[in-house]
Amino acid sequence: AKSGYNHFMAKEIHEQPASLRQCLRGRVNELSGSVSVEELSDIDSPESVQLVACGTSYHAALYVARLFRAHGVPAQAHLASEYVTAPAPFDSDSLLIGITQSGETADTLSALREAQRRGASTLAVTNVVGSTAARECDHVVYIRAGPEIGVAATKTFSSQLATGNLLVEKLCASGTKRTSESTRELIPALRDLPNQLQSVIDNSTAKSVVEEYLDYDAYFFIGRGLHRPVALEGALKFKEITYEHAEGFAAGELKHGPLALVTQRTPIFAVVTGDGERAQKTISNIKEVQARDAPVVAVTDGQSEVRRYANHTLEIPQTHPRIAPVLANTQLQLVAYHMADRMNRSIDKPRNLAKSVTVE
Ligand code: M6R
């Protein structure tokens, strides 16, 4: 069942080019430069969006919320378990989106139900046909990642991000909010994503890089903008399967507290692509940690001058800024996987964790 891989997690990481092709199939029309999502043919463009999710799916929600905001639609991601403690107000044109791979996460279902009680229109973004979220929500979009066995979510996260792009293009396509230029550039980037992800997997040096960082005190992950959810997800995956202390931070927040933890015993994984102002700021943050002798592993593309500063780099090909997080995240999946494998951890069934969390 593992198709020659030692773990389902490895198999599922390697399945991502195929699962992304499956996610995008029939939904992206290169000739017309448009996106169509059959499941959403009868949904109106929302005036505002709230997203609820847990864990890895919450990191996807953070990413998707940013995409909506970039299209001028107010959007906020909430941890589902917190959302129910103080649901954000919404009006009749708002859409409540629940992102849940399994469609069975109790916290997410509660948040969706609470919103429905208040009259919200709901959309489930899920991998499982006929799941509770799919049945209970007004609308459903399937991420089509195929079954995921490993407790650590990998291919479903990539497909959540890809689906998020489709959703935003579809739901923001009508009216004045359409950003047609960005759509035009996005479509070829989506088309190239499966092959680029394959090349990331084929050429990754994550296995040898982790050899340099065994037995350190803690592992920090930083990123800015769309790379912040990747940093948070990189840390979650790492702690989940290595049992080492790992934290993800917005790069700009380091100096507001976490920097006190940084030493030569705390490697920093920094996600930084492109050569814009955002990348420059993250490079400044990298210099701050290097001044404290922390080793830096940069996940980066050819454009960034971060390679001049980093101790090691994990390379991704250049792409649209919205797609780079998917490629960068794959490098961090491989970092977590190879570190956990090196430490002989129970990768597919990490201690204390379940694939689907059906209690609140
Ligand atoms: O099935 P869901 O997407 O609702 O699951 C939510 C989280 O429990 C899940 O993403 C969890 O954080 C991952 N398995 C971690 O790898």
UniProtKB/TrEMBL annotation:
State if Cytoplasm is listed as a keyword.
Answer: yes
Name of protein = Glutamine--fructose-6-phosphate aminotransferase [isomerizing]
User: Example GO biological process term?
Assistant: carbohydrate metabolic process
Task: Keywords in alphabetical order, please.
Answer: Aminotransferase, Cytoplasm, Glutamine amidotransferase, Repeat, Transferase
Q: Which reaction does it catalyse?
A: D-fructose 6-phosphate + L-glutamine = D-glucosamine 6-phosphate + L-glutamate
* The SIS domain, residue ranges: 36-177, 209-350
User: What does the record give under GO molecular function?
Assistant: carbohydrate derivative binding; glutamine-fructose-6-phosphate transaminase (isomerizing) activity
Grouped into one coarse class, the protein's main location is: cytoplasm
Which residues of this protein are catalytic? K355 (for fru-6p isomerization activity)
Q: Does the keyword RNA-binding apply?
A: no
Assembly notes:
Homodimer.
What gene is behind this protein?
Answer: glmS
State its Enzyme Commission number(s). Answer: 2.6.1.16
Q: Where in the cell is it found?
A: Cytoplasm
Instruction: Specify first residue, last residue and whole-protein length for the fragment.
Output: 247 to 606 of 606
Q: What does this protein do?
A: Catalyzes the first step in hexosamine metabolism, converting fructose-6P into glucosamine-6P using glutamine as a nitrogen source.
| Cellular component aspect of the GO annotation | cytoplasm
